[in-house]
């Protein structure tokens, strides 16, 4: 009798699970084209003008006992519903989209993830995001756009960004500099927050190099004020 009661309960849970998974899968399939279009728009603004972005869905088969029905076939169901999702991207014309982790450099991954986070907006809140080498291979207008997107994204979460570009650094609410020095024959690394004229001087150095001119300082002040 106990076994029969458990089997009845199991069957009811299986039906409820299948119903919820099907609803979620339907919403995802509707959302993928919208998500893809939004990511593509963000990538274009981040200097990936020829990039192609796709979402690949893998639906592993399963037995009747271990899976749930989807379009007449039993599929494996995960804790997050049907399917395993993978982001595919091609950053060069003529190349088919491949898994993001296999083809993108560190800087490219940072910018692509920035595009994805901007596309999802407030739908997927994350308390802290860290971007390293996000400025690799960019400058000018693209660097300004990256800085603006980071600023916009920081309204929803805290962002740590390691950058060498003044266009990005000027957008920060807090600006820190990392320094390496030698003391008593030992190498020491320190970090400190810049304020006031120190920040002006650092932004001027980032854009002018070794020789910081008054013109560079003036431009740095204009960058902070804008």
How would you explain this protein's 3D organization?
This protein has seven helices and ten strands. It is an alpha+beta fold. A three-stranded antiparallel sheet has the order 1-5-6. A three-stranded antiparallel sheet has the order 2-3-4, covered by helices on one side. Strands 7-8 form a two-stranded parallel ribbon. The chain starts with a helix and ends with a helix.
Strand-helix topology:
Blueprint: H1 2-45, E1 52-58, E2 67-70, E3 73-78, E4 81-82, E5 84-90, E6 98-99, H2 100-103, H3 106-120, E7 128-132, H4 140-153, E8 158-162, H5 166-169, E9 175-183, E10 186-194, H6 197-208, H7 214-225
Parallel strand pairs: 7-8
Antiparallel strand pairs: 1-5, 2-3, 3-4, 5-6, 9-10
Helix pairs in contact: 1-3, 3-4, 6-7
Strand order of the largest sheet: 1-5-6
Low-confidence stretches: none
Question: What is the ordering of alpha helices and beta strands?
Answer: HEEEEEEHHEHEHEEHH
So what's the overall shape? Answer: elongated
Average pLDDT score: 88
Please indicate the percent range of residues in DSSP E strands (runs of 2 or more). 15-25%
Task: Compute the number of strand runs.
Answer: 10
The rounded distance between the terminal residues' Cα atoms is: 75 Å
Based on helices, strands and strand pairing, what is the structural class?
Answer: alpha+beta
Number of helices: 7
Largest sheet: 3 strands, antiparallel
Helix residue percentage: 40-55%
- Our Rg estimate from Cα atoms comes to 25 Å
